[in-house]
Amino acid sequence: MEIVHEGEVESTEAVDGVHLKLLAGGSEANVQQFTIEPGATVPEHDHPHEQVGYVIEGALEFTVDGETHRAETGDSFVIPGGEPHSAENAADVPVVGFDVFAPPRENPDWQD
């Protein structure tokens, strides 16, 4: 068994105002914490991994296929692998949550 203590993992600023921590990972999935500052945007991107997430606080506006979806505190979401998507924090408070990627998202490009 592996335990990863969130406080011991350094955050990476993937794009301006988007802070990510790659946490525990196994052979089938891994988990990532995100904090997105007010006004910050995750540009449109895609990856082969299914992305399942949960918003702990705040609200994110996702755009998928030109359609906007709002995920608020307590909401969970699924983005199929290969589906282009973006996200924006249009609120005045940070958004904090977790993503699970399956298969594991090893060495994401934002770590470079």
Task: Give your account of this protein's structure.
By secondary structure, the chain is mostly beta strands. The chain has a single domain, classed as Jelly Rolls, CATH 2.60.120. The protein has strands at residues 12-15, 18-25, 30-36, 41-45, 50-57, 59-64, 67-72, 76-79, 85-88, 95-102. The strands form two sheets. Strands 1-2-3-10-5-8 form a six-stranded antiparallel beta sheet, with no helix packed on it. Strands 4-9-6-7 form a four-stranded antiparallel beta sheet, with no helix packed on it. The N and C termini lie far apart (28 Å). The model has no long low-confidence stretch (mean pLDDT 94).
Please outline the helices and strands:
Layout: E1 12-15, E2 18-25, E3 30-36, E4 41-45, E5 50-57, E6 59-64, E7 67-72, E8 76-79, E9 85-88, E10 95-102
Antiparallel strand pairs: 1-2, 2-3, 3-10, 4-9, 5-8, 5-10, 6-7, 6-9
Tell me about the largest β-sheet. Answer: 6 strands, antiparallel
Treating each run of at least 4 consecutive H or I residues as one helix, how many helices? 0
Q: Remind me, CATH topology?
A: Jelly Rolls
The overall pLDDT average reads 94
Q: What is the total tally of β strands?
A: 10
Cα end-to-end separation: 28 Å
